[in-house]
Amino acid sequence: ATTLKLAHAAPESDLQQTLSVFFKEQVEARSNGELKVNIFPHGQLGSDSQMIDGARSGIIDIAMSGLNNFTGMLPEAGAFTLPFMFPDRESAYKVLDGEVGQGVSASMEQFGLKGLGYPENGYRNVSNNRGPVTTPADLDGVRMRVNNSKALNDMFDLLGANPQQIPVAELYTALETGVVDAQDHPIGVVLSFKFYEVQDYLTLTQHAYAPLALVMNLDKFNGLSEDEQKIITEVAAEAVAMQRELSIEKEEEMIAELEAEGMKVNRDVDSAAFQEAVKPVWQNFIDENGDALVNAILEASK
Amino acid sequence: MTLILFLTVLLGSILLGLPVAFALLLSAMALMVQMDMFSANILAQSLLNGVDSFPLLAIPFFLVAGEVMSVGGLSTRIVRLASALLGHRRGGLGYVAIFTSVLLAGLSGSAVADAAALVSILYPMMKKAGYPEAPSMGLMASGGIIAPVIPPSLPLIIMGVAGNISIAKLFIGGIVPGLMMGMALVIVWSIVIRKEDVQVFKKADKAERRAAFRDGIWALFLPIIIIGGIRFGIFTPTEAAVVAAVYAIAVSTLVYRELTLAKFYQVLVSAARSTSMVMFLVGSAMVAAWLITVAQLPQQLAEMLGPLIDHPKLLMATIMIIVLLVGMVMDLSPTILILVPLFMPIVKMAGIDPVYFGLVFVINTSIGLITPPVGTVLNVVCGVGKVPMSHAVKGLLPFLLVYLLLLALFVAFPSIIIVPMNLLIG
Amino acid sequence: MGKFIETFWKAIDTVMAVLMAAMIALVFINVVLRYGFHSGLRPSVELSRLGFVWVVMLGSVGVLRRGEHLAVSEFSEVLFPALVPYIRKVIWLIVLVSAGMLFWGSVQQTIANWHNISQLTGLPTGLLYLAGVISGALMAIVAVAHIFGPLEHVVRDAPVSEGEDKQ
Ligand code: NA
Ligand code: NA
Q: Among A99, B24, B148, C129, which residue has the least CB neighbours within 10 Å?
């Protein structure tokens, strides 16, 4: 029997673990135990970049990580996480599962990875301690933690916030003591990292869609029998579909939970004003990476 | 079974004299062979990604701050201030040593550096004043290990990373137990010194005290900057280390004018070397940790300790006895790096507060720095003071006993640590 | 030749000192900018982490060369001092294998990540692993020199070395 190591960075309460458990159970059942899957959640096998490096070199077999963590190799894939790229989830699914997404999966192969599908972390939203964020001016002068995406740094810079680099592991403390007053993450992260304890306001800005990528070491995949490959790809597709469904279902539940924890949730966002304000971010991206993928996404999501 | 293989290779090669970092790599290789996944990629990736950590950047910065303080004249002034305040009491130089230990602990993160500073500055004075050799040595050594408990602290930083615990909370939580360690030393010293005939210094007059205070005030600002800056969100613990370094550089060049460019270069090189030693160990431990995880050793350990999960205090006591035994032969950072990832899952399952666990663990491993046969602080104190180890150990015993008593109290009554910590965090 | 080697190690010390000073400057300036000027240096965190990795990997070679890695030599020296010179050969052999693995794994990762470009610094993430290539190669050379060098006998009552663990 072949044992596969599946790694992700989310805690066991997260849907990434739900997906992993489903994947494990189904793969093991349908292969009659010929394939075994061991799950390593919570970054046990390393940070996102370490997991991706591990899946490429084959010391990890399957890894799940934010698509933005692949943009060092595939800069054009940053198009998926551009601010306000996907107005709704349906268009995101359509693009990611269609030709455009297949194209990205195909270019992963030159880096030793087999793309198995795109689960999601949902939309990123802004939380802070100052007040609801209705218009771009509400972010002016806020010290804000931003991840390593250039587009998001550019975006919050444009909106007048003061983007700061702080590792996620230190973010709770930084928010608690006030080193920064704001951050942006998908809802699930706000809940599992308990940011609601140190943040008063959550605004559903939905400013960027956050796809995950489920990838497998290419050699390992090619080394499996045809039947086993089929099991892996089929189960992966089912797992992704299930995770997305749960993600939508769970989002309202999680928002309610955050409200129960005392967060004031604001849904009144002037999206048009935000989209107008961050236009230069798209232009920057197109200047650096060309407009092919952006146009393809816009075309496909029509 | 795999657990036994891992521990045998690790401990066996350490006892043969293989540097601990390479012993970790060797036991990682043993696990690779056992699981049939021998790969240079595992070693290189885990080692380099283990070193590539922003929180651990605080290590070189706090080391720079500490070394600048000793070559830039801040440490000497702290001793002078303590002498002016306490030198006239019976056994006064001992109290000076304790007071200085606590102050230095608030300035530096390194027990070895603090103990070395204490011995080299205070011990000659104590010898001249007729203080008994062994208890004085014991006091210096046990004063030195307050440094890792009171922030800033390199071991607390390593604990935060190894156990995924908030470093800021560990820092704030260390203040009260650190002060309690100082108080315990005061009590033991007053008993030990009662029957000894030692010279008492003339009381410093008001002018002298004021001069010492004015001169030392710059150094005293440093702990306030570090703790206040973290508590009030001016900077993260990592950035605090840089601010401390810049502050120490500024004071010793602009105020004391004792830091030259040549000295500063030496400080940077020496801090870089000490950092490398600690961090190569961290990287190697990450390689071992990666394989420990894949081999599912924590689950094996959890099975063994499983029955204790419903009795957190008993579990805590068991772990602390293991740590104490390991600490006799192993240094502080490898003990943290090897044992914390193994114990953390069970500790969490038992509902023990991770910050409390991290603090007691670090206090315990700090005690290991002065327990024979292998104790780095003990070695340094004996080396700098030129006293045989057996002699110093005799003088150390009463202090060691009171520390163990304190440790037992922390295990029996966790609220001693948790209540003041929550008050300070607010 | 000896002089060249001396100069080489000194040059490495200088590189480490410069990197250390640069890291202090980067992080400090970022704090000042955040509070004084409502801005920040976007690449400062990543750059200082990269500098840190290089300092550690270069420094580890120096630590190995000077025999300052934390080790417990007391047991073997007391229990079987006559065997210690041979045990030390074995120890250097283990160091050689470890350094060789570090080197080889890092070479593969450097190549794999040379076109993996960080968004915030514009630098290849392969630079992280390149530190392992250099460090692994230099450590292997140090180890080979000891393996083929003379037997190292136990010296009694060696003075406590300054460079021991600095917690
Ligand atoms: Na300290
Ligand atoms: Na010890």
A: A99
